[in-house]
Amino acid sequence: MQRIRKGDEVVVITGRDKGKRGTVLRRVDAEHVVVEGVNRVKKHQRPNPMKNVTGGIVDKDMPIHISNIALFNPAIRKADRVGFKTLEDGRKVRVFRSNGEQVDV
Fold first, then answer.
1. Of the residues 8, 30, 47, 93, which has the fewest C-beta atoms closer than 10 A?
2. Taking the CB of residue 27, how many other CB atoms lie within 10 A of it?
3. What are the mean pLDDT values of the chain's consecutive 10-residue runs (105 residues total)?
4. How far, CA to CA in Å, does 60 sit from each of 41, 57, 63, 93?
């Protein structure tokens, strides 16, 4: 089970974009995710009339390592670590380490 999933709200805890919040758009691989508005770079794009793409400089979100982000806990309004807990019915759920609340409600 993954600690950080697509659609989670995360906070950048280290690096150039420290303190920024955003939602996870997609997982690139097991250790990298793309977060909305984080690790943004400028890409010089050539026009391609066959694909109807105009040229110019575009902003692009690049992948960030999952060790540099943490899940946002709305109860304490801060970044928090994630743990796992097995419920009585056998389901495995994600919980916040600070207060033990379920992440997926």
1. 30
2. 16
3. 92 96 96 96 95 93 96 94 94 93 83
4. 5, 10, 10, 33
Question: Domains of the chain, with CATH numbers?
Answer: 9-80 (2.30.30.30)
In angstroms, what is the C-alpha Rg of the chain? 17
Whole-prediction pTM: 0.84
Write the burial class of residue 25 (CB in 10 Å: 0-12 exposed, 13-18 middle, 19+ buried): middle
DSSP state of 61: E
Identify the pLDDT of residue 1: 74
Q: What's the Cα-to-Cα distance from 41 to each of 44, 68, 85, 103, rounded to whole Å? A: 10, 17, 38, 31
CA distance 30 to 23: 17
pLDDT at residue 69, as a whole number: 96
